[in-house]
């Protein structure tokens, strides 16, 4: 065995360290700053429950909405589902689902059995819209204002506490408007 | 006062670990016996002060000392005492203290159970462990001290422990897991000591084996327990999520498995020396990498601790020093010589090497899947996530091939085995496994299923080859009882662990294919049917726990008209964090679990109820337990003690 080969593990490790070091300066929970206060990316994607219906930003611009990224393969999504149902029941804001890299049958069955908190669900099977949006992993939730501009991003499970924070942000808009 | 004592003890422990990291190693390189002799007392002193420090933190928790920031953030006066004490490791700082305590525990264990070890070897091993301890205790003191205070204004009460963690699982899962993670530091230290001394003989492998096996057993036990905990605590019946933190524990386990087998070959046949050394370095490196991933915030995970780039940077430096240092040492010092003995294509050596490669490939697969989002992100190519489909698509087939080899290796002999011997021995087990695997889905389910066929055949293949080899031991004319006694604990341990793999595989196969679940709206008196069982909803009543209030439902379960059991799932609301928790209720059985979780309250006293039928789910953990028990059993082999003495005699001569 050539002696140089024995340095291979060390070289591989050096490459790994470079990535890890780079990784430290990136916060996976942070939205690429470019997208905060920018309009929601334009898209044309079919709806989960009505495949014939093409959705676009025009379907929700006009009032504030929550866009919730979810998938059936994501355990935390299941954890937050009940809270989403509660938010939907309160009727203070419309929730839109973004079904991310998922199978249509499984996702439809999920909504049928667990309940559907979403006004409609965007079926992003290829994950392209998620990529434009900078989705790191499900679940993620975006708060959009009436103009369709992204104002806040929440990574991870939506809890009662998150909902209180989101409401506070919405109330600050109302105060500004008043 | 007590927290300050804890901090002070930690500083003293750091002092002793610095001494341990320098004096014995210097003594070993300059052949100064007196300096080498310092290793043992220094290890004792370091351990003593780590225990004092840990006890101080536990006392602060027991006494509800909310002036201590860590206590205030992870405990509450209402918390039951067993959770107050396990909350000690419920957050980043305390769990790191536990990590360091366990490291010093392993260090003192090596110094106590190493009477046969030559002095210079012991000095080097303990010295290397001292270096690791120095790194981690510094990390604690500089970035993550659990003893900092909120003064002068401290909170009246604590913010409480995350309700998900208020469970028996927290009491045992982290300590077991850390015993495993940190335990690989012993094999690592032996490898480094061997490289430093240049004595890479069979003795080195023999010394490392019991330590590796026991650390592996702890890690496996910890993973098994974590899976079981997730299953009953998260409330939706899943048992493995390919979460980055789970992956972080799986990778060292896989490489550790490879290491165990490779050490056996190195000890018995004197081959694969460089490869075994590399595995010893990798196993512990992956433990360290796991620590980095969990605590630095580079990946998002349900388990991740609060992220802090400064901490991340500190661990990265530790990683570079430990792993980079050891790999550099490896590249320069590993002997580049031909093996002492040769072996053929169909030999036990070759099959073990193939299994080793499969295990390492699996670990790399998991590593890539875990790091891929980070790599893509660091390259500026966007943010992505890798889901279970990736892992299942790659992991399952590799596992399948490995299991085939596992069976083959039981019939193979050292050096070389004629093909016709293997055929003669294994044809029958192979045919039986395939036949039963084929019939099983028809008998148990309602039609052919390729996944079940494959899973059951492979599991039976392991079982039948293990038992076949066991039977083959009795061909000699000695009496059965004498033979049973004559076989070593290592052999029984190996059999047990291999059977464990089969049992786990059966569990995974059947629970993945035949699980059933239903989500239903249930009003009082409603009945649903699932897998022949009837579940009758009897209503809910409010109950009050120590630090929560709950709605407790009652569901009566019957099978063919006969009552089986009544289960009481709960929906809890924890007072302090104001968070809702689903407490599933499970009727566990060897062949099936009935699992009920409460969803949301609906109108008119009705509830959303989720009911699962999970066949053979217990087998999955039972197999994990068997593997770990097998690992522990091997340590009781008399051979290790006997051989140690002779080797040390030879070394002193």
CATH superfamily of chain A: Glutaredoxin
What does the oligomeric state look like here?
heterodimer
Order of helices and strands of chain B: HHHHHHHHHHHHHHHHHHEEEEEEEEEEHH
Largest sheet of chain A: 5 strands, mixed
Gap between N and C termini of chain A = 77 Å
Low-confidence stretches of chain B: 643-653
Strand fraction of chain A equals 15-25%
State the shape of chain B. flat
Overall pLDDT level of chain A: 83
Q: Based on the coordinates given, report the CATH architecture of chain A.
A: 3-Layer(aba) Sandwich
What CATH first level of chain A would be assigned? Alpha Beta
Q: Helix share of residues of chain A?
A: 25-40%
Order the strands across the largest sheet of chain A as they lie in space. Answer: 5-4-3-6-7
- Nearest-integer average pLDDT of chain B: 87
> Helix amount of chain B, in percent?
55-70%
- Based on CA atoms alone, the radius of gyration of chain A comes out at 20 Å
The 3D shape of chain A can be described as globular
Structure commentary:
The complex is a heterodimer of chains A (178) and B (653). By secondary structure, chain A is α/β, with parallel strands linked by helices. Chain A has a single domain, classed as Glutaredoxin (3-Layer(aba) Sandwich). In chain A, a hairpin with a 7-residue loop joins strand 1 and strand 2. The radius of gyration of chain A is 20 Å and the shape is globular. The termini of chain A are far apart. The mean pLDDT of chain A is 83. Chain B is an alpha+beta fold. Among the domains of chain B are: 161 residues, no CATH class; 102 residues. In chain B, 65% of the residues lie in helices and 11% in strands. In chain B, the strands form 2 sheets. In chain B, strands 2, 3, 4, 5, 6 and 7 form a 6-stranded antiparallel sheet that branches. Chain B has a 4-stranded antiparallel sheet with strand order 1-10-9-8. Chains A and B meet through helix 1 and helix 2 of A and helix 11, helix 12 and helix 13 of B.
